[in-house]
Amino acid sequence: MNNNQYLIPANSKKSMLILGFFNVTDLIIFITGCIITFILLMLIKTNSLKEAFFIITPALISAFLVMPVPNHHNIRTFIKNVYQYFSNERVYKWKGWCIRNGEKQK
């Protein structure tokens, strides 16, 4: 057996995150949504479930944005990647071994 093999754990990037889930931007978004919801809960007296749902909407939206998803960091980065994919120009030029790059064949 070769002793020069290194095993990298699958969650090695998780140690760079706060609490293993948040980076600084995610934490700011989540805390801001929770603070806004807390202030609204203190200021607005509600008697219906529908009004209470609208009051807690900022916390729900911020929690949804920072929720982790597979193959991406979270929903926010997934939305950013989808936006960049559809808004950027997608022209791929083939540069492979089977094309002559505009040169004429002799």
Topology, please?
Elements: H1 24-43, H2 49-55, H3 57-65, H4 75-87
Helix pairs in contact: 1-3
What can you tell me about this protein's structure?
- By secondary structure, the protein is mainly alpha-helical.
- The chain contains 4 helices and no strands.
- Helix 1 runs antiparallel to helix 3.
- The protein is elongated, with a radius of gyration of 24 Å.
- The model has no long low-confidence stretch (mean pLDDT 80).
Summarize the structure.
By secondary structure, the chain is mainly α. The protein has four helices and no strands. The mean pLDDT is about 80.
| N-to-C order of helices and strands | HHHH
In helices, the fraction of residues equals 40-55%
Question: What is the C-alpha radius of gyration, as a whole number of Å?
Answer: 24 Å
Main sheet properties: none
Overall outline:
elongated
Low-confidence stretches: none
Number of helices: 4
The end-to-end distance, rounded to whole angstroms, is 51 Å
Structural class: mainly alpha
- The overall pLDDT, averaged over residues, is 80
Instruction: Find the count of extended strands (DSSP E, 2+ residues).
Output: 0
Strand content: under 5%
Question: What tags apply to this protein structure?
Answer:
106 residues, mainly alpha, 4 helices, 46% helix, elongated
